Amino acid sequence: MAPPMSAADFLDRLREEGVTVVEVGDWVHHNRDHKGPWGPVHGVMIHHTVTEGSEYTVELCRAGYAGLPGPLCHGVVTKDGRVHLVGYGRANHAGLGDDDVLRAVIAEKALPPDNEANTDGNRHFYGFECENLGDGEDPWPQAQLDAIEKVAAAVCRHHGWTERSVIGHLEWQPGKIDPRGFTMQWLRERVRDRLK
User: Fold this and answer.
1) Contact yes or no for 120/172 (Cβ under 8 A)
2) What Pfam families does its record include (predicted)?
3) Is omega for the bond preceding 69 within 30 degrees of 0, making it cis?
4) In terms of C-beta density within 10 A (0-12 exposed, 13-18 middle, 19 or more buried), how is residue 133 classed?
């Protein structure tokens, strides 16, 4: 069981990994903690936003929308490779997912198919939203892919996790397709190599 790192440590770990960080408002205290606990944490979840335009994307992920209040993640990875911190604590990003997947993440084993939604993922995962339309055609610039690799590695490095603690939303919740445009296996291999 791992308690979440402090917001200060989170910021430090990202910067130590070479991430260009943008702090958005009072991100340290912007969370959904009144809706339930955050932690113990077990992994990092990667999403795509189905949006375009960095300014709009960051504001949406910070504020949320009707029916899903923000923050919608901890950090937004925009196409230019910057990581915008929009909240810290419980965030509305993972939703309900598969308890078998969570057990595999904790054990750092291969993930089983996600076939049920019975476990609160907002409690157990750091979340990064990545600016992309998610249509399989919108490009992923190299700077953005590098930043996604770095944020995942930074969190794993802090907690002593391997690349198997990095999952996509599509591996957690049935019916989700994100991130689309690269495979999680490819990303985990990059994180593995970075952690060596």
Assistant:
1) no
2) Amidase_2
3) no
4) middle
Q: Which residue has the tokens 């157990």?
A: 124
Give the helix/strand (H/E) hosting 11: helix 7-16
**What's the CA gap between 140 and 123, in Å, rounded?**
28
Place of tokens 């960080």: 21
184: its two tokens: 């999680």
What Cα–Cα distance (Å) separates residue 146 from each residue in 29, 103, 173, 179, 187? 27, 28, 25, 15, 10
What does each of the 196 residues of the chain score in pLDDT, given as a tens digit?
Answer: 699 999 999 999 999 999 999 999 999 999 999 999 999 999 999 999 999 999 999 999 999 999 999 999 999 999 999 999 999 999 999 999 999 999 999 999 999 999 999 999 999 999 999 999 999 999 999 999 999 999 999 999 999 999 999 999 999 999 999 999 999 999 999 999 999 9
Dist CA 44 CA 196 (whole Å): 18
Q: What is the pTM of this model?
A: 0.98
Sign of the CA dihedral with 106 first, then 111, 117, and 123 last: positive
Task: Tell me the CA distances in angstroms from 152 to 44, 69, 75, 85, 189, one per residue in order.
Answer: 6, 24, 11, 14, 12
CA distance 45 to 129: 9
